[in-house]
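quick one before i forget lol
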Amino acid sequence: MGVTVHDPVCGPEQPEHPEPPRAYTLFAPADASSPKICRDFVRGALLTLGLAHLAEAAALCTSELVTNVHQHTKGDVHLRAAIATTHVRVAVYDASHQLPSPRSAPTEAEGGRGLFLVTALSDLCGVTPAGGGKGVWFQLNR
């Protein structure tokens, strides 16, 4: 006769130690090519891992965050994508302490809606202090 242990938090079907997220890092130059480089990198990682249903939203959110870094800060872009069993989180780091803030864009304006798009498309998003600057991130649940 065996003994069955039931963990009320994890339940019997959950692994004792969940699989750590897969982490992907990219450094992109501080120029106008960065949004495309980072967008293609994130899209490619998600497609490779069979997460096509998240690829386009993640690519668009990534592009918007990297565009903000290019337009409002100096220095290269540091991108980190963490792909866990429950979610995908992409963070874009820069050396500026200035926090991003959504602004109202006039109807005819070509820009100014990036943070609104990220907020609308993601399940979570935020800003985290990092080193000498910050990381702006979004999360898409799987």
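fyi The chain has a mean pLDDT of 84.
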